Amino acid sequence: MSSEQHWHAARLIPTSGGDRAGEQRRRAASALLAVMSAADGFGRALLRPLGAPDAPVRAYTEVPFDNGGVVDGVLRVVRGRRSWTALVDVRTGADETPAQRLADCLRVAREQGFDAVITLSNQVPPLPAPEPGEVLRQHWSWSEVLCEAVRRREHAEAAQAWVLGELIRYLVHPDSGTLRFDDMGPDWAPLREAVRAGTPPPTPAASDAVLRFEALLRLSALELGREAGVGVTPALTRRELADPTSRVAAQVARLTAEGRLAGGLRIAGAVGALRVTADLRADLVTCHVDFDGPAEGRSSTKVGRLVRQLSGAPDTVLLETFTRRGRGAAESLGAVRRDPALLVADPMREVRGFRVARSTPLEAGRDAFAGSVLAAVTAFYRDVVRDLRPWTGVPLTARTAASAARPTSPG
Question: Out of the domains of life, which is the source (predicted)?
Answer without folding.
Answer: Bacteria
